[in-house]
Amino acid sequence: MGGVPRNRPNDVTAAAIYDAFDTAMPRSDLVAMVKQDRLGEAMLHVLSLLHRGTQGNARALTDALATLRALGLENTARRAAIQSLLLER
After folding, report:
1. What is the rounded end-to-end Cα distance, in angstroms, of the chain?
2. Which residues does 40 contact at the CB level (< 8 Å), separation at least 6?
3. Per-residue pLDDT, 9
4. Quick count: other Cβ atoms within 10 Å of Cβ 8?
5. What Å distances lie between residue 43 and 27, 33, 37, 88, 89, CA to CA?
6. Contacts from 1-9 at CB under 8 Å and sequence distance 24+?
7. Could you give the CA distance from residue 17 to residue 29 in angstroms, rounded to a whole number?
8. pLDDT at 81 (0 to 100)
9. CA distance 4 to 33
10. Measured between alpha carbons, how far is 48 from 30 in angstroms, rounded to an integer?
11. pTM recorded for the entire structure
12. pLDDT given for residue 46 in this prediction
């Protein structure tokens, strides 16, 4: 798959997605939950972040996508990013 574009987009949602796939760190509290065998609880938090992200909270969207990636769910993060862009339109 392709890499991250060189220039950060001006659009808020696109920029949040760009950050998630470029430099953003995952939410350490959610990664810790997974290490404590609390994957379900962590995923509920990620879903909540995604929802807030689609409502305009760019930081929540970046956190959700970066955390999904850190948990090995790269394809899920990519699909969620695409859906977020489509929902914005």
Report:
1. 24
2. none
3. 82
4. 13
5. 12, 10, 12, 23, 26
6. 1/78
7. 20
8. 96
9. 28
10. 12
11. 0.89
12. 97
CA–CA separation, 37 and 56 (whole Å) = 31
By the 8 A CB rule, do 54 and 84 touch?
A: yes
Residue 89: both structure tokens together: 């339109």
Residue keyed to tokens 């999904």: 68
Long-range contacts of 47-51 (CB under 8 A, 24+ apart): 50/80, 50/84
Q: For 8, how many CA atoms within 13 A lie in the half-sphere containing its CB?
A: 11
Long-range contacts (CB closer than 8 Å, 24 or more residues apart) made by 47-52 = 50/80, 50/84
pLDDT along the chain (89 residues), means of 10: 71 93 94 96 97 94 97 96 87
Tell me which residue of 85, 48, 83 sits closest to 63, measured CA to CA.
48
